[in-house]
Protein 1
Amino acid sequence: MFPNDRKPALIFVTPSHQFPMGGTLSVKRRLELVEFARKNGCFILEDDYDSEFTYEGFPSNSLFEFDTEHVIYAGTFSKIMFPSLRLGYLVVPNELVLQIRKWKRLSDHHSNSIYQLALMRFIESGDLERHIHRMKRVYKKRRDNLLSLLQVYFGEKVKIYGFNAGMHIVAEFEDIVFTEEIIQHLLKCGIYVVPVEKHSILKGNHSNQIILGYAQLDYEDMVKGLEILKTRLNYS
Ligand SMILES: Cc1ncc(COP(=O)(O)O)c(C=O)c1O
């Protein structure tokens, strides 16, 4: 629940798809969070970085839809387009507009104008929407492939989290600790996996879980990678 003894100035959340475990905040919890911000006079920064790629059902209402005075909504083109574009956007409460414009100017003066113009045309022509629909089909297929291959290779020994949205899942393995040695070995074999531990504040609770990104992988790559993973984890 919410802390009674603290009065934050800002709460940072990823309610559509928590990174890395992939949890989604229910509508009830969203309303409670907004209520907390109202009562305590603080702002919520809603980082909605990949809800365009939601594969089951529909994305929930954003926090910003519930409260336009306490929520700052942040979106990015890093996932729907590509990260090196370095373009994102904020939808902010009226009272913050001038201040945030000033901070943006101070932080990097402005984002690349040509990229912004090109993106504007891409959006206006309807191509961005078509691109998202197409990529959603592609990523969903890759996700489905990965989920079924994990079942084939690891069966009951693997538990999957966070597969409803985004471009990665978390795989939890029975009786395994993903040490730096295992991670480095996998890297040498051409497999880049990130341990969930790397992202946790309290260490020791996620040592048997890894993040598996699938956006770029075709079926054959997945098969190759999972075979190596299975061998390295000594699963028969
Ligand atoms: C939690 C989270 N927020 C935001 C982003 C996007 O960041 P940026 O727009 O700086 O590329 C990512 C990218 O992976 C992310 O994982």
Note: The chain has two domains: 10-125, 129-232.
Protein 2
Amino acid sequence: MQFDVITLFPEMVLQAASHGVTGKALETNLASINVWNPRDYVIDKHKTVDDRPYGGGPGMVMKYQPLHDALTDAKKKHLARESSKVIYLSPQGKVITQQVLSEALNLSQIILVAGRYEGIDERFIMLDCDEEWSLGDYVISGGELAALIVIDAMLRLIPGVLGDSESALYDSHSDGLLDYPHYTRPETIAALTVPTVLTSGHHADIDRWRHKQALGRTWQKRPDLLKNKQLNAEQKNLLNEFILESNPIKV
Ligand SMILES: C[S@@+](CC[C@H](N)C(=O)[O-])C[C@H]1O[C@@H](n2cnc3c(N)ncnc32)[C@H](O)[C@@H]1O
């Protein structure tokens, strides 16, 4: 998987991506990140990447030409054009979910465009971008953090990137449920003791308990997720058990 980020702050992207899981994926060549700075493509005599908005109003707008030329070079770096997409990170885009990211895994190149200031010239979005993706209904100062989030979340899904290949399977949202609770030593903290099943050594019981917790937590914390999920008979039983255990009928 090749990521290309068009950004006015390339160091910010490379620095942040060099740590932890993303850093390891880059070191082991399971993925690569190239950065393209529109500032390197400025040709106008004032050497500016941004300009005042037509119609007036606050802030500056990133100009079309430097973005377009940076994008042209990013595309040249990858030959399999049919499996490449240009994504503008924008608060106006479709909200990024685990499903959006999983679907994009079949691409071999993702070009992420990070805006700054008031945003970018609308014609770049219309002519050069395939999709707009958003972190959610709030505004941050630049698309770099959004690009990093996309890269991190996608890399976790690539086989071989996580130390334990099964880890991502149980992450929240990977199968429409939240993750089960995790505990580590010591066994007791402030009178809260680790559930006994986890120290029993019975793997089947542990799996069953974890599955029940994942269903129960989703029911408690994000009931909206369960509306879109078809539970099988065993899952319905487990969820009913969880509900009964958390709401014991008082006699
Ligand atoms: C200050 S914002 C511009 C917001 C723009 N004026 C608007 O309201 O739609 C600057 C850049 O940050 C990025 N950005 C801001 N909020 C974002 C979000 N929720 N998701 C993804 N990118 C975002 C975009 O790349 C945007 O071009």
Note: The longest helix spans residues 203-221.
